[in-house]
Predict the 3D structure of the following.
Amino acid sequence: MTTSSGGRRAYHHGDLRRAVLTAALDVIASDGPAALSLRDLARRAGVSHAAPAHHFKDRAGLLTAIAAEGFDLLAAALADAADLTDAGVRYVRFARDHPAHFAVMFQPGLHRPEDPDLLAARTRAGDRLREAVSEVAGQDDPRLAGVAAWSLAHGFATLLLTHNLTGPVGDRDPEDVFRSLAGMLFRR
């Protein structure tokens, strides 16, 4: 952004869509999804209040794009996991590295859960988790094994991000703590 002769900030970024997504992620990370406003994001980017609507139509469209991007990032994070425990560790790491995406992805009331891009990204991430689960499910129902594994990783990540594990985790590396938990619960 540069300043024009009247002191108003003029937008000169080559990718408005990315600039709005980045600003939205910053807002969500600091204040949560409820604080998100397209008008505020336009002001932050130095563009007219209608400019973000060209890319996202509305707030739900923006949050849908964030959720889809998050699931794609999660799928990439889970790719090539060595085993189910490693997939869980990668899930927790993803949540820590991308807390704003994580805050939006699993709240279908915030976005359009039937959006084709979102569905495709969610499927890619789910496929990665199912691959890791299939290796340990054995005689167990793989769907229920997947729910158990996801519940552990998602619950741990959520509790970690909301600072509810400060006492139990202490100064220990959360990923090491998760490995220990997974070892306790998923012994064969």
